[in-house]
Amino acid sequence: MAQDQPLLAVREALRGCFPAVQEQQRRWRGALGDCRPLLAALGSLAEQLQAAQVARLDDAPPLRAFPGLRERLRRKQLEAGDDVLDKLGETLATLLKVRDVVSRHVEQVFEVYEQHADAIGIDAVQRASAVSPSVADMLEWLQDIERHYRNAYLKRKYLLSSIQWGDLANIQALPKAWDQISEDEHQSLVQDTLLNVSFFLEE
Fold it and tell me: Which residue from 64, 116, 148, 195 lies 20 to 30 Å from 184 (Cα-Cα)?
């Protein structure tokens, strides 16, 4: 029985990690959902700014009594845009926190595994059962999940960092570019993994 203790320690660490990943996945999806209306609002503001640039306000007699209207309108639109960017920044911070929490949990599992690896042996690590994947598979899946969050965060951070009010066409294209990131990702990776370990977690 004492020989089983190292393996049990790793399995317990895995049982603690996957529910934490599940919780962070809910936070991640919620944050991505919050981004959609914000990106749409940003695209709409970019369209308004572009329209205001070409509008012939001076040709409209009722507007001639308001000198500097174009600049005041632009200033208000930019202020509204900066407010949206601040909210997107808050959402990006949530994604970063999810990435960090997941990485921390995965790191803890690997620390436990490395402590006991020699005592466990390769055969036990690779052994699976009808209801439980092998420890080797579960460790690999956690690495895949950690990599998924890391890459997904960096892509979105890079996209938002590219925003420049001088490039209105790029801002209008943001919602589509954001969706493309999601389409390019293995969106079901985390959910598929949690499904694969569901019986293991209930043992």
Answer: 195
Q: Which residues of the chain have pLDDT under 70?
A: 1-3, 52-70
Pick from 188, 132, 173: nearest CA to 43: 173
Hey, how many other C-beta atoms are within 10 angstroms of the C-beta on 72? 11
- 68 conformational bin, left if phi > 0, alpha if psi -120 to 50, beta if neither: left
Answer yes or no: are the C-beta atoms of 136 and 123 closer than 8 Å.
Answer: no
What is the rounded CA–CA span in Å between residue 110 and residue 115? 8
* DSSP conformational letter for 165: T
Per DSSP, 60 falls in state S
Which residue is associated with the tokens 């962070």? 24
Give the whole-angstrom CA distance, residue 161 versus residue 16.
Answer: 35
pLDDT digits (tens, 9 = 90+) for 87-122: 999 999 999 999 999 999 999 999 999 999 999 999
